[in-house]
Prior knowledge:
Two copies of one chain form a homodimer.
Chain A: E1 4-10, E2 23-29, E3 37-46, H1 51-54, E4 72-82, E5 92-98, E6 102-106, E7 111-113, H2 129-142, E8 149-153, H3 160-169, E9 173-178, H4 181-190, E10 195-198, H5 205-212, E11 217-222, H6 226-233, E12 236-244, E13 258-260, H7 263-268, E14 272-275, H8 285-297, E15 305-309, H9 314-323, E16 329-333
Parallel strand pairs in A: 8-9, 8-11, 9-10, 11-12, 12-14, 15-16
Antiparallel strand pairs in A: 1-2, 3-4, 3-6, 3-16, 4-5, 5-7
Helix pairs in contact in A: 2-3, 2-8
Amino acid sequence: MERMNRQILLNKRPKGFPDESAFKLIEKETPEPADDQVLVKAHYLSVDPYMRGRMSEAKSYAEPFEVGQPLKGGAVGEVIKSNHLDFLAGDFVTGLLDWADHTAVEGQSLRKIHPDAAPITTALYIAGMPGLTAYFGLLYIGQPQAGETVVISGAAGAVGMVVGQIAKMKGCRVVGIAGSEEKVNYLKKELNFDAVINYKESENISKALKEVVPGGVDIYFDNVGGEISDAVLLRLNFHARVVLCGQIAHYNDEKKEMGVRVLPYLLTRSVLLKGFIVRDYRDYFDEGMRDLAKWLNEGKIQYRENIVEGLENAPDAFLGLFRGDNIGKQLVKVS
Amino acid sequence: MERMNRQILLNKRPKGFPDESAFKLIEKETPEPADDQVLVKAHYLSVDPYMRGRMSEAKSYAEPFEVGQPLKGGAVGEVIKSNHLDFLAGDFVTGLLDWADHTAVEGQSLRKIHPDAAPITTALYIAGMPGLTAYFGLLYIGQPQAGETVVISGAAGAVGMVVGQIAKMKGCRVVGIAGSEEKVNYLKKELNFDAVINYKESENISKALKEVVPGGVDIYFDNVGGEISDAVLLRLNFHARVVLCGQIAHYNDEKKEMGVRVLPYLLTRSVLLKGFIVRDYRDYFDEGMRDLAKWLNEGKIQYRENIVEGLENAPDAFLGLFRGDNIGKQLVKVS
């Protein structure tokens, strides 16, 4: 076993848009797992927009990261040493791990994965939290009906691309909003979205939207917020559903932002809007995982991953989420 | 039967805050009821904030009123002449009637009421649409649990006062927001609200709210919108519910209004927000009416009505809703 363990710490809490100074790479001794713990060597780290919230002091649905302590996120890795009955050295597992080469972690917080069933990285998106987020948000909150129009912001992200493909399976007309021509082409040509708006090239998002959804919007799956959401919310149909999944446009806000007042529109259209985190649906995870794995194996869900090499590049990969760099799931290959 | 029939027409569509010029009082011959119609003499008219929406051209959940035609609203009256099998002269009925002395109306659109069971005016609020609106909004969307904190804006209005009393029955802590000391006193002393904020006397509604709901808000029943709602939405608890019932602060808006962006707050607290109109729950009206009538008869729901005399004063009574004149249900006694 390697004796030294690289870790990325939260160096200081960022204000507004974070930069590299929020992170610090250090080396420490590799920890020994305690009773019921497992030592895991990380293979891939997931970098996710929600982690920005945990870098701030304000309490949200997840506890804030501590300054001077390693960041933690979804990851897949290999068991190096086990003091837990359910795991053996060599097992592949997924769970929350440090941004580090190795983590000593409670065995009960891990889930075993089977490298023969699907590429292990898919446990971090299609067959993992982003996949489940798409699944429960669209199916449990959105409740799509065949023939309805679904609009997805952040459509080329890890969640958005799954939402769109499930919505197509359900017979919906699917319209994506994304931020580059490469993303637009991918969503249209490879994932068969019915229409995609490149909001960065669009002079008037509201007008562009009106052209592609002349009949209005039945479901809005929102990963983004801001002016994109303003435009969509003003085009909702009666009894529309808004699945409030992410607000990446606002994670770096330093004060209350002003925008169009949307409540009057939500009222007159009898709209249902629901914010959620995937944990709200933990009692149904088995069902979600079963369906997602089935669709994955049947080739009904296509996917794309964006892999950055090297633990030391995890901070930049994370910052790239806010620059809109990634198509599909952003991952870091640790070594 | 009187031959002449006073009617109040929509004279022109108001822009922004309406005034008397939007209305016109005329006299016409009293109509003859056609087959299956009933001629009803109006006793009391209900004036309701939602009618402002129907005075505009924009399509909403109800069709716009037509310029040059009588306004229509909830009313109670007496059958003068019936061509419908279910009604006899002398029956008391409720339904949508013209703002007029007499209306010839399809019998099937009316519901018979029993003057011995409760004052006939209560069919226009506690045992009518405002009561049902309070009932379904609070119980079906809000789903109050004992011990939770419920905040109600427009708390002294026809809907708000019923919401508060049902929430008290369910064991909730009830906080009202209203616009005069008289309203505050009424809600506290006669309806036993736990706390009431006079937003017109409060320098900082957000701070005033923090003082009376230190543990945050579990259910927000919103009749108002605007800055009052901004303050409440920023104090929602995890898994809070927002019952979006009215937005009286915005019914006279001439353009999109700007305000605090609320989606980020709704997201991080996994909030459910639902706009609705009472018609969405029409399949459950019997249940709602049964419970409301029972509570009314048992004295569990107190009520207050504000009666203006004379059909000619209906426009001013309607305008008074936006000035915040009324405590409880605003009615017009036709003659």
